[in-house]
Amino acid sequence: MITIDVSPEANPARHPLPKLTGSQRSWQGRFEAMGSPCEVLLEGVGRTDAEQALCHAAREAWRLEHKFSRYVSGNPVDRINQSQGEPVTVDDELALMLDYAAQCHELSDGRFDVTSGVLRRAWRFDGSDHLPQQDEITPLLKLVGWNKLDWQRPQLTLPKGMEIDFGGIGKEYAVDRTLLDLKRLLPDGSSVLVNFGGDLACSGPRTDGKAWIVGVEDHRRLTNSNETLSLHGGALATSGDSRRYLLKDGIRYGHILDPRTGWPVPDAPHSVTVAAPTCTLAGMLATFAMLQGADAEDFLKAQDVPFWVQRSTA
């Protein structure tokens, strides 16, 4: 096992250093970012190229985490959330994310909303049976609504008390961005798969022409996947409530909230996995399907994409 050293500036959150394992021309790099285990699988490259690719992937994941996380004091998202109604000028990358957030809001008929993170003040999805009262939720709904902010690229004005949260789209963007960089960096004839916490994308089939074999997590057994998929190209993304939910009177409340009501989406699946050309698109469709609740399968069939839905059999 090789531990890859990176400068402190490239690892602002002081994550454990990336580790590379493998031999000859097949490698696996691992590190942590965005609250998830991350890995980069590489074939058709030597050790030096593998080390450089892993180092770049970790730096890029950490950069994006530091830039877009709502938990980092003083970063661009924090400055927006602390702006108290004053306009904030953003860079091109953040503008791209805001444009995408606006598109998601429109395409989902308001079900997907990056301003809905304030609802976490009422909800704690810790597996307990504690449900908030409606009088805790109602005041927060006044602080939710993409249409309440003013986005005129490159300037965003967020009403006082409102927040934005890119948690629903940031990781998928990071996967696509990292894969694009690695495809440019690595030599012809190589193959790479980028997996950030189960959201993943690959450059194509493995160097021998075979598919990458990936697992779909079973919400009933978090340590082992019960189904594997063959991926020759493109991406997979999953949205679900395997780890974040409440359970009261036999009813399971998942963490996917409808921003229009402030409550979990009724009759939502436990998880949705979607295959698409990019991880960003796969993640959007998986989340949109969860927000459709009982109509998740019908929604996905209309999109004409491969998908896997898990619901309770009880």
TrEMBL record:
Keywords: FAD, Flavoprotein, Magnesium, Metal-binding, Transferase. Belongs to the ApbE family. The keyword Acyltransferase does not apply. Magnesium. Can also use manganese. Mg(2+) binds at residues 168, 287. This is FAD:protein FMN transferase. The keyword rRNA-binding does not apply. It holds the Pfam family ApbE. Its EC number is 2.7.1.180. Residues 1-24 are annotated as: Disordered. InterPro entries: ApbE, ApbE-like_sf. Its cofactor is Mg(2+); Mn(2+). It catalyses: L-threonyl-[protein] + FAD = FMN-L-threonyl-[protein] + AMP + H(+). GO terms for molecular function: metal ion binding; transferase activity.
